[in-house]
Automatic annotation (TrEMBL):
This is Helix-turn-helix domain-containing protein. It holds the Pfam family ThiN. SUPFAM superfamilies: AraD/HMP-PK domain-like (SSF53639), lambda repressor-like DNA-binding domains (SSF47413). It comes from the Archaea. Residues 20-48 form the HTH cro/C1-type domain. InterPro entries: Aldolase_II/adducin_N_sf, Cro/C1-type_HTH, Lambda_DNA-bd_dom_sf, ThiN. PROSITE patterns: HTH_CROC1. It comes from Natrarchaeobius halalkaliphilus. PANTHER family: HTH CRO_C1-TYPE DOMAIN-CONTAINING PROTEIN, TRANSCRIPTIONAL REGULATOR PROTEIN-LIKE PROTEIN.
Length: 299
């Protein structure tokens, strides 16, 4: 595993610093002045000047990098560009070069060939790219599951059908955008058991509850189902939750939608059950950790 930041540190920075040091020396700056401008030692400047630092020819030969180095060298030498501004402009260029097809993205894909499977639009530092968004959701879900696994007595809250902690992407539209535990969480001899790592598209029931709430503008991104009891419901309300009842014997999506419309602030949904339908409480929240914390507070 190699992160793109490692390529920036190991390949990009030595190359660009060497190019800048050379360009500044060509513009008449002393080694001491170059060191001060670049924020490095004079001995480092000397190494750059004598070619003692390994550089990357592909980075050095990129036209945008060459152009920026010349522009910054002119500005730094004349005093028209501050070191802070130069740093920002280099940082901006780094992010551009991480875009699929550009030199840093190419070097990263060569180091980690699996990245090529995600297409030319993949960009590691773009917080909105699909892969990074999905990984954030899964990471949050894993943390929430650890909270529950380590919560003494959580198994007593697991209903007969099992529990599932789910979380969704910000623009979730269907079940494939919701991650959960394959096979659900079960009580095995008094111990909450998470059978495997969370995945997207594996929860139908709890995911449907979450998505139905979101479609009626509920500001929630995670949910869990637990066993129903009036006492548990009262404790959730006392802790600050707003509860709304829905009828699971009817169409779930429309029933949940009606409940949320009647109680727009609802973060607890419940149904009291009937023949063939187990009574359940659904706790909803902004992320998996907060939902798990809410459930742990009931123990």
């Amino acid at each position: 595993m190699q992160f793109v930041e490692e390529i920036v540190v190991d390949e990009f920075l030595p190359t660009v610093r060497s190019m800048l040091a050379t360009a500044l020396r060509e513009r008449g700056l002393t080694q001491s002045e170059v060191a001060q401008v670049l924020g490095i030692s004079q001995s480092a400047v000397s190494k750059y000047a004598h070619g003692d630092v390994t550089t990357n020819d592909r980075i050095a030969g990129d036209e945008r990098i060459e152009a920026l180095v010349e522009e910054l060298a002119d500005g730094l030498a004349s005093g028209d560009v501050t070191p802070v501004r130069a740093l920002i402009e280099i940082e901006v260029l780094v992010r551009e070069l991480e875009t699929g097809g550009d030199v840093l993205a190419q070097l990263h894909e060569e180091a980690v060939p699996e990245l090529a499977d995600h297409g030319s639009s993949f960009r590691v530092h773009d917080p909105e790219n699909d892969l990074r968004t999905s990984e954030r959701v899964l990471s949050s879900l894993r943390r929430g599951l650890r909270i529950l696994e380590n919560a003494s007595g959580f198994a007593s809250l697991i209903p007969a059908v099992g529990s599932n902690l789910v979380a969704c992407t910000p623009d979730a539209d269907d079940i494939d955008d919701v991650a959960g535990v394959p096979g659900r969480i079960f009580d095995v001899k008094g111990q909450a058991t998470v059978p495997t790592d969370p995945e997207f598209g594996v929860s139908e029931h709890v995911a449907t509850i979450l998505l139905a709430s979101r479609r009626h503008d509920a500001p929630v991104s995670a949910a869990i189902n637990i066993a129903y009891s009036p006492e548990l419901l009262d404790r959730l309300v006392e802790s600050g939750h707003t509860a709304a009842e829905f009828d699971e014997s009817n169409d779930i999506v429309s029933s949940v939608g009606a409940a949320v419309e009647n109680e727009p602030e609802a973060t607890v949904l419940y149904q009291t059950g009937r023949m063939g339908i187990e009574p359940l409480i659904y706790v909803l929240g902004s992320d998996a950790e907060s939902v798990a914390d809410d459930v742990r507070s009931l123990l």
